[in-house]
């Protein structure tokens, strides 16, 4: 005798899963693959560009300081124009296309350059001679804006982020920039020499000292210095001009009644010439006589005259233009002001009519 005893069940028997095992396993694998595709897409969004044939390059003109006078009280400035060119390849050859605009971080690193040992300041060179200057990322010319890069203390590269001009097919983008240069006036510049009494070119080459690094990205901006790199050449050049300044102070003989004995007085001639620059100072014959060997003063409002002499030493040879037995004072510039005593002498002669007597003499520095 048999009896059927029903087996107890839990839950709703009508919802039991009786699908084939192979179908269940296939759907589980599909979920895993979808998750992996999401992770791959996220990785592409975070770091999209390096697997593509994307590239950046830089071109830049030279930094040229023209007509730099070391004895000028003003700073000298120059600048160079540059261009960053970045190209994006096709963002994704097959669907799904990348939807976020790809970007690129470009960092322009300016090294020390030749003829220099550091960037605080940089130096240009002519043989063993040096000229201090620096390069800047902007026109503030502040210490914080000195252009440089990794490994150069107190400097930073020029950095920019560019965005692809086209979402789906990429393209090329050009971004201009400016590099600023400054030569500060002061004692260091006044010490700069010219060579062979001629305008002298000081220079520095950055053929092996200027690079860019660039990283294509989407969401997270990378740090400067990562990614691909390329170098670009440029030069810095300054033409130091041979130059002098001259100034004088008046020479006063004072008041007197008779000229029975010589009357002496002193004035000064000051000259400032570029370091290592030879010079000569000439005095003309004056506005009255026009003769370097026979100068005269004329009475104001009259025609009477008084003979007098000028020299570079006490009762020395007449100071003139090198003609008629006169001499010129010679020297070599140091970059600083060199004062020279101008000696005046009124020799014994017949006493003229009372009054004020004067003459105007022009001092010329020849270099």
- How far apart, in Å, are the first and last alpha carbons? 140 Å
Q: How confident overall, as mean pLDDT?
A: 86
Q: Indicate the overall shape.
A: rod-shaped
Low-confidence stretches: 1-29, 38-52
How large is the share of residues in beta strands? 35-45%
Helix and strand sequence: HEEEEEEEEHEEEEEEEEEEEEEE
Percent range of helical residues: under 10%
Largest sheet: 5 strands, antiparallel
Q: What strand line-up does the widest sheet have?
A: 1-3-8-6-5
Structural class: mainly beta
Number of strands: 22
- Helical region count? 2
Rg measurement, Å = 41 Å
Protein name: Spore coat U domain-containing protein
Organism: Massilia violaceinigra
Pfam families: SCPU
Domain Spore coat protein U/FanG: 52-191, 232-364
What features would you describe in this structure?
The chain is 8% helix and 39% strand. It has 367 residues and is mainly β. The strands form six sheets. It has a five-stranded antiparallel β-sheet, with no helix packed on it. Strand 16 and strand 17 form a beta hairpin. The longest helix is centred in the first third of the chain and has 26 residues, at 21-46. The model is unreliable at 1-29 and 38-52 (pLDDT under 50). Residues 52-191, 232-364 form the Spore coat protein U/FanG domain. This is Spore coat U domain-containing protein.
